[in-house]
Model the fold of this input.
Amino acid sequence: MLLHAFPFSSAMWSAQREGLAGVCRVITPDLRGFGGSPLGEDAPSLDAMADDVAELLDAEGIDRVVIGGQSMGGYVTMAFCRRHPDRVRAVILADTKAAPDTPEAAEGREKNAGRVLSGETLTEMVPNLVGATTLARRPMVVGRVRGLVESAPPAAVAWALRAMAVRPDSFGTLRALTCPTLIVVGDEDVISPTTDAEAMHEAVPHALLRVLETSGHLSAIETPEQFDEAARAFLSTL
Ligand code: MLT
Done:
């Protein structure tokens, strides 16, 4: 089960759907409001997204999963571990962090939520979402990321910004993890840099930490071969 980053959709996992297909069943839901998923009426919270995943598992008749997420998807994965621990077989945390927002970051999100709801797009995010190498040498990837950012549904973007702004500290959740865990980070990630991955690794010492080269915050999109290889190697140990 792979959960997408903000402000994307299941479309961001197209390489993994193909690259991991021979190894396991790959489920890539649209988190609420994104892709084809309705936003609903709930107050913004990543817990609601985590509970949606549990409902999806019920509908599919699946008891336990290897659950992973990139960035916001990683926040939702940690919420899922907190709320549905007995359904977790193993965890993959990619380009994400366990720390909550600082008050300044939360304020910035609220400002951006207002901008998006008044018709602006968050195109200025794009250069930070990808790494320096992608920005300089992978124009197709940058174009795809820009297209996805610009086409994200405004109500979902605002809802998710507000949900991320109130997410709790997840270090306790990580310390409680006993299942196999893989932490992945792009070496050029400037949003959840390697120091965040190292802090998560400290909280889950039995986790495997993989640093992907020439990759930024969207490692699954920027360097899918490396991402898939890390995931396949991890899955083969389960
Ligand atoms: C993401 O890629 O999901 C976001 O950058 C996460 C965040 O804004 O904290």
Notes: The chain has one domain: 2-235.
